Amino acid sequence: MQYTGSEYIGEYVDGRMEGKAEYILPTETRYVGEMKDGMFHGEGTLYFPSGSRYDAIWEKGLVVQVSLNSPIWTHLEKSPRALMTVEMASTTRSRG
């Protein structure tokens, strides 16, 4: 799960991203948490450039449990679908 322009700071096991890590997407969104087999797996938090955060438990790259109790969440960001749409759009937009 490595995107062009992303940065990974963490451990590797057999050449795969695994263990405690920080993963920075080209959009400057950061994931801080556990990785397994190159995917978000375990407890982890997405930090957005806007200052919002998304705390979740991940399994093989997918959210299985989420906490939206942070007071800095906006209404739109409380929707996992909106979160995914915004992140997908921001990683695919053209630069220039």
UniProtKB/TrEMBL annotation:
Keyword Repeat belongs to the record: yes
Q: Where in the cell is it found?
A: Cell projection, Cilium, Flagellum
Q: Which Pfam families match?
A: MORN (PF02493)
- Gene Ontology terms: cellular component: motile cilium
Which InterPro entries does the record match to this protein? MORN, Morn5
Chief location: other
Q: Does the keyword Repeat apply?
A: yes
Q: Which UniProt keywords apply?
A: Cell projection, Cilium, Flagellum, Repeat
Q: What protein name does the entry list?
A: MORN repeat-containing protein 5
Q: Coding gene?
A: MORN5
